[in-house]
């Protein structure tokens, strides 16, 4: 059964020199940064960035992350991070595909799961805050289940 996708977003960037290792390919840990750049761009687009999360009384730590390396990215390569928001009610789960921006060749697949945590009590929330749901529903690509 296919996952429902609530929203989609894409972010392009160029691989900087300081992200490559001695083999002249992107060091594996930098892919996490590329996910974060794309996620932050999406959150800014819906007006619910990390500062807004805190204003609403929540932090959203990563509680799970998975990455599958398919093909290495290289210095100067233009890459695109396509994200799909696949869960919004109990957590924020995003699936990512990193591709070569020109050819579309897949470089990496990943997913992250974030949970809302009350800044006041420090307790994890089992339902996402209403402020989050309203923000994500405003995204132009939002599709309800």
TrEMBL record:
Keyword Amino-acid biosynthesis: no
SUPFAM superfamilies in alphabetical order: Thioesterase/thiol ester dehydrase-isomerase
UniProt protein name: Thioesterase
Natural source organism: Neisseria zoodegmatis
Family statement: Belongs to the 4-hydroxybenzoyl-CoA thioesterase family.
One matching Pfam family: 4HBT_2
Keywords, in A-Z order: Hydrolase
GO molecular function, one term: fatty acyl-CoA hydrolase activity
């Amino acid at each position: 059964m296919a996952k429902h996708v609530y929203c989609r977003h894409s972010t392009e960037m160029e691989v900087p020199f300081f992200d490559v290792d001695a083999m002249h390919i992107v060091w594996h840990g930098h892919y996490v940064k590329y996910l974060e750049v794309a996620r932050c761009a999406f959150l800014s687009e819906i007006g619910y960035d990390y500062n807004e999360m805190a204003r609403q009384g929540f932090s959203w730590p990563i509680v799970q992350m998975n990455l599958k390396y398919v093909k290495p990215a290289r210095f100067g390569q233009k890459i695109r991070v396509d994200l799909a928001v696949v869960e919004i009610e109990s957590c924020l789960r995003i699936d990512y595909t990193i591709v070569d921006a020109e050819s579309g060749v897949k470089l990496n697949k990943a997913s992250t799961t974030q949970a809302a945590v009350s800044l006041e009590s420090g307790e994890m929330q089992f339902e996402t805050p209403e402020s989050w749901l309203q923000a994500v529903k405003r995204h132009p690509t939002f599709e309800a289940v």
